[in-house]
Amino acid sequence: MRTNQYYLATLREISSDTENISHQLMLRSGMIYKVGSGLYSWLPTGLRVLKKIKNIIRNEMNKIGAIETLAPIIHPAELWEKSGRYTTYGQELFKLIDRRNKKFILSPTNEELITQMIYHKIHNHKKFPIHFYQISSKFRDEIRPRFGIIRAKEFIMKDSYSFHTNQRSLESTYNMMRKTYSAIFNRLHLNFFCLPAETGRIGGYISHEFQAYCNQKYEKISLNKKVSKNKIISSMNTDQLKLVEIKNKSELFKKFHIYKNKILKIILVHSSNKDIPYVGLALREDHMLDVNKAEELYLVQKPLKILNNNEIKAYFKIHVNYLGPINLKCPLIIDYYAVIMKNFISGANIDNKYFFGINWYRDIFVKYVADLRYTANQNIKNKNKDTHAYLKSIEIGHIFQLGTQYSKIASNMKKNYHECLLMGCYGIGVSRLIAAYIEQHHDSNGILWHQEITPFHVAIIPICIYKSEKVKKTSEKIYHQLCNHNVEVLFDDRLINPGIMFTDIELIGIPHILIISENNLKNATIEYKNRITGHISKIDAHHAADYVLKILKNF
Amino acid sequence: MRTNQYYLATLREISSDTENISHQLMLRSGMIYKVGSGLYSWLPTGLRVLKKIKNIIRNEMNKIGAIETLAPIIHPAELWEKSGRYTTYGQELFKLIDRRNKKFILSPTNEELITQMIYHKIHNHKKFPIHFYQISSKFRDEIRPRFGIIRAKEFIMKDSYSFHTNQRSLESTYNMMRKTYSAIFNRLHLNFFCLPAETGRIGGYISHEFQAYCNQKYEKISLNKKVSKNKIISSMNTDQLKLVEIKNKSELFKKFHIYKNKILKIILVHSSNKDIPYVGLALREDHMLDVNKAEELYLVQKPLKILNNNEIKAYFKIHVNYLGPINLKCPLIIDYYAVIMKNFISGANIDNKYFFGINWYRDIFVKYVADLRYTANQNIKNKNKDTHAYLKSIEIGHIFQLGTQYSKIASNMKKNYHECLLMGCYGIGVSRLIAAYIEQHHDSNGILWHQEITPFHVAIIPICIYKSEKVKKTSEKIYHQLCNHNVEVLFDDRLINPGIMFTDIELIGIPHILIISENNLKNATIEYKNRITGHISKIDAHHAADYVLKILKNF
Q1: In this predicted model, which residue has the larger pLDDT, A549 or B20?
Q2: CATH T-level assignment (fold) for domain A3-214+394-442
Q3: Most exposed of A182, A419, A523, A554 (fewest Cβ within 10 Å)?
Q4: Cβ pair A72:B106 closer than 8 A
């Protein structure tokens, strides 16, 4: 693609109402255009990325035998009235009427519709399990659309629905979907975690959500505190959570021979927020709380007021020894050293009971992380003034075991089909994935794309192409050679300052950049720049295309 | 794809409310599922075809440098209020409000939105002409949804918008789009025609629409009356229409030396319909009207009552000599011999004026075609009892030169950009194309797909696969060989009567069918059936895959 025949749409300035880096970069790099509050058009560069991500999802869904369909966006309201969600879904449901006053909704999700189809069309038990998916626009009347495409009125979702005649079959597909989602997010190079979740308005009894870290804060933790990315992600595959009866805390050491660094303790303090009386501070059993650090946290009352045993008994109804992070009745701030614990032990918030094999994210949602530990070296405290790190994350996927909730309703519709099918449903916020990716993969110059989802593989920047015949000839030759190998090339043939070309190409984030100048061509070389490493090397002008093809193959 | 892992969704029965063959066949072959009035889900087989058609359109649009984008479905109403269409578009516009009572519409088309973006984002004249397209769901609050996906509330449309700084540039793109649309419809093997059209609610000053014939009636004409398809389609490139002053009809013969078979005459008769007083019958000047045939037409009053000169003068305000098909104030029924005329001459419905170079479809919409001509051989009349052929057609594309209609409004939005851009807009009813295709390509057993858009290239029908190890082994081998060459194969591995398999495969319309049976394998052969020709041949079982690959290549 030649830039003159393309619509680059990059921006120098960004509007002041963009709160997060992905929103800023998507607007600046010309991926999206804001039509209205929570409404965006996909511009050519954004659409190229979106299509590639859709295809990765299709590819992984097809692998496990899910079948693609496409439902309408408008659903008759009667389907939603039957399930009860026409009212229970709340104000986020977009409703409309047609010219005959018939009621409709704009689909945020498809449980009712797909269940109806299954009951109308499939009368043979042998067809189950069956699993349908679709990738399409969904709608949510957000009270406050923000963060660009992350919280929008209209967004693109992959939703899928599986139907089963027994629980074992449902569980098998559910577990397969957890793996498939991990495979998809891994292919997108997303740093994510999976944890048990509330089922909310979708309903059902078992549910997990996938969250992608937002880069900035996460990077701070991982760089400052050496929390390796692998450690947190690996928490997905760990010990089982076990409830163990322990009469006395000392049994932990004496009977079970547990080291103190495997135990998490909770210290309860008064909150600075009127709506929340107390806040829990979680530290390793062998670490001491630094009162000064704790007092600087905005959720914590200053001066610090630690709850005594009686106060705990009164509010939490348990003995202080059995406090733990799971089902704790107050917000929890976790120390940097505690958040990297794996398979640890803590109270179960039930008298005489402990949990063994606890893991963050899988068993407890991590919201607040901070430096709480007392150290002899007081310099550390002053170095790290931003003491309250807020570990933001973006929900990118959600899977549910719905059981018979929807099929019960549908089976009433069609009386000759009595058995209640078990159902699972699985969603991915497709457009959100792009925002999550950019949150995690950018630098001060712009986005950093990986090869599988980059809008273009290679950019050609010719210096003074309209003055130098040699530059023009070489650029055109390399461009055609690469195009003939199905490499997606952006050939920047604009009559502008090369500096602007560099800025645009780096902002868009094309991973491989070729710079062709008269000066280098004198020595029969051109420059290759790797956008991610920043490394520049001179390469043989005659074999430039081969050089790039080799890199692309080995990526 | 193995049928057991697929969702075939074919139906034995069809509901009685399907009015046309494409609707019936799409439901029966499991391409679509009806969710509600004018609302359909695309099932796996339908979605496969839809995707291929989308890609053909993308391919042709990309060839002429149009750039793909994707607008949201919900548009802020204020954009439509500014253009005036929020009210003028009428009741077909779906309107909705969000939780804050802000007004929105569900997009039937995108002129306002794209124009706003152009004016906000493009400030450099050199970027023009620029042409954006998108393929997405569109909405129309139809008063009476019918004909399946042909007249639906929600449908898939390719809409595109070009912007120009001068009329010549607009015309050049407009003409290119006429060619591109023809290329797309030809690739889809559609029998279509293009004619000047009303601009309607879209606005603008020049417009053409593309109509696809509905097969049944058209075939009757072409077979019975030898109207070759090429003749009608070639009417696209013909003489210019000219208005010529002629004082006396005899001048035509004396001064211009015109043969009578190049002139069209109109005979006006009383109508059988109370709402329409008169009906025109169009014949070649050298042909005579058969009164008996005319009386059998349902629009014509029986006994036939031909208007005299005074009656014509009173109602049509012109002399009988200057009657013609263009701007005629009543419906027109065209004789089979008249409808195949090209570059012909007829009155202009203005006294002393004739049109030269008239062509059907381009200059006049053809709605009613019938056998009107008197012939000495009276047997013909009785043979053809169905005398009133109704040439139905489906609108599949529409192109407009809009001029400055929308850009005027947009330029007011952004004051620093004063020039009014000229605009063209171009639509294709993507989902409709499938219906139009099926109307033209089917037989009594089902759909007949061409290779480029068929849901599967090849079907494998193994006879008694669960009894014969030999059949199983051969089928699996051929299946894998074809899959390895990226051939899309439907392998019917269902444990059912082979008769049902045949019915399903022929209904779906897969063009190449391989039948593998124990009996034939004894002679090391299998059967190949061509769905379109119906021809069955025995082929070498060992080289079956190669045989099919060769056919697919030569298609």
Answers
A1: A549
A2: BirA Bifunctional Protein; domain 2 (3.30.930)
A3: A554
A4: no
Measure the CA–CA gap between B135 and B156, rounded to whole angstroms.
7
Q: Provide CB contacts within 8 A for B331, sequence distance 6+.
A: B271, B276, B279, B280, B299, B367, B368
SS3 B251: helix
Q: Using alpha carbons only, give the angle A448, A450, A456 rounded to the nearest 5 degrees.
A: 85
Give B35-47 pLDDT, tens digit per residue: 999 999 999 999 9
Residue B260's φ and ψ, nearest 5 degrees, are -65, -30
- The CATH architecture assigned to B458-554 reads 3-Layer(aba) Sandwich (3.40)
Contact between residue B183 and residue B410 where contact means Cβ atoms under 8 Å apart: no
Residue with tokens 């950009």: B417
Q: Where residue A385 falls among pLDDT bands split at 50, 70, 90? A: very low
Q: In what helix (H) or strand (E) does residue A119 lie, and over which residues does it extend? A: helix A111-121
Phi, psi of A162 (to 5 degrees): -115, 150
Q: Cβ atoms within 10 A of the Cβ of B242, count? A: 11
Question: What's the pTM?
Answer: 0.75
Give dist(CA A303, CA A270) in Å, integer: 9
Q: Which DSSP string corresponds to A418-433? A: -PPPEEEEEEEEHHHH
Give bridge partners of residue B547 from the DSSP assignment: none
Sheet holding B353-358, edge to edge: B242-245, B353-358, B344-347
Q: What's the farthest any 2 CA atoms get from each other in chain A?
A: 86
Contacts of A40 in chain B (CB under 8 A): 72
Q: Which of A327-331, A359-363, B224-228, B460-464 has the lowest mean pLDDT?
A: B224-228
pLDDT(A464) > 80: yes
Tens-place pLDDT, residues B1-50 = 999 999 999 998 777 677 788 999 999 999 999 999 999 999 999 999 99
Question: CATH homologous superfamily for B228-391?
Answer: YbaK/aminoacyl-tRNA synthetase-associated domain (3.90.960.10)
HSE toward the beta carbon, residue B302, CA cutoff 13 A: 9
What integer pLDDT is reported at residue A226 of this predicted model?
33
Per-residue 3-state assignment (H helix, E strand, C coil) for B475-503? HHHHHHHHHHCCCCEEECCCCCCHHHHHH
Q: Which residue has the tokens 């660009």?
A: A148
Cβ-contact B89, B126 below 8 angstroms: no
Q: Which among A9, A47, A73 has the least Cβ separation from residue B70? A: A47
Cβ-defined contact of B99 to A141 (cutoff 8 Å): yes
User: Nearest C-alpha of chain B: how many angstroms from A61?
Assistant: 13
The edge-to-edge listing of strands for the beta sheet with B512-516 is B489-491, B458-462, B512-516, B525-530, B536-540
What residue ranges do the domains of chain B occupy?
Answer: 3-214+394-442, 228-391, 458-554
Q: Which CATH architecture has domain A241-389?
A: Alpha-Beta Complex (3.90)
3-state SS assignment for residue B316: helix
Q: How far apart are CA B165 and CA B167, in angstroms?
A: 7
Gap from A4 CA to chain B (nearest CA, Å): 7
Tell me the one-letter amino acid at B80: W
Give which of B181, B175, B174, B63 is closest to B422, Cα–Cα. B174
Q: Read off the DSSP letter of residue A287.
A: -
Q: Quote the strand ranges of B165-240, DSSP E.
A: 192-196, 206-213
Backbone Cα Rg of chain B:
28
Residue A471, Cβ density class (10 Å: 0-12 exposed, 13-18 middle, ≥19 buried): buried
pLDDT at A373: 84
Chain B residue with the nearest C-alpha to that of A100 = B143
Quick check: A68 and B132 CB within 8 A?
Answer: no
- Substitution target in B10, B47, B69, B430 with the highest count of A β-carbons within 10 Å is B69
Task: List b or e across B321-336, with b for residues whose CB sees 16 or more CB atoms inside 10 angstroms.
Answer: bbbbbeebebebbbbb
Residue type, B285: E
Q: Chain B residue with minimal CA distance to A142? A: B99
Query: Residue B3 is inside which H or E element, if any?
Result: none
